[in-house]
Request: fold
Amino acid sequence: MRRPLRYMVSIGVAILAVAGVRVFCIGSYRISTGAMKPVLQEGDCVLVNKWHGSSNPGRNRIAVFGDPSGQAAGSSSLFLGRCVGMPGDTLQITADGYTVNGRLIRIASEKTFCIRKNIRPALLETLDRLDIPLRSVAEDSLYITIRLSAREESLLRENLHQVLPVEPAPAVQRSFTFVIPSAGWNYRPDSASLFLYSHVITQETGGRVQADGGKLFVDGEALTVYRFARDYYWMLSDDGEAVDSRHLGLIPRTHVAGNVWLCWYGKNRSHPFKRIN
Reply:
């Protein structure tokens, strides 16, 4: 059962000056997930730098973030992941993992499976009951192709072993390349990439801009260019099985609490006040 971060205490330290001195803010959180093992363990207490700057959230830093849709395990859920994709980065999803600006980040714990489409209702009900996200790769008239971790595969087979044949997918895999939006980036809508951006565009505009038929519309008129208002990030957990951008999609800056800075209490007593980089 995946569990989000449980908010324990929020400590706000503010230093204000009339002449424009920055506000410094730190939050304290208790880790209730194994998303970043072995760097952080369940039960660890960490300090999070909540002052947003050019390096917060920072590249490859561990960050606390929320679900932008508010649908994953409750609207107030917080999650833990590594910020592998920054605004403006080019990210490619392949069978081997994720390539960010040409650098491969492997996700070795997942495999791809084909599941018969005629039992889709039973599949979706079981995935929801077992708290397994539907990470769909492709779909045709006969099969739904999804990615599962070893633990997820075992759970699924135990619960649907009589009605759900899970078969290894063909060796041929698709890849998909996209740019992580940054504030002010002009995006020209196309049907190939709009499925990824449409949800965040709808959220940015409060539903005023809608996607339909591979195009964006505002007040009934098609948009040729959409300018993003926010910076976005791509978060991945270190263990490959926790909730991250593979399930939640692009994470807007407004939903990132900040970089994890210091572990001030944990099971490993040999490293008190351990810096987290």
About this structure: The longest helix spans residues 150-160. The longest strand covers residues 256-265. The chain is about 15% helix and 35% strand.
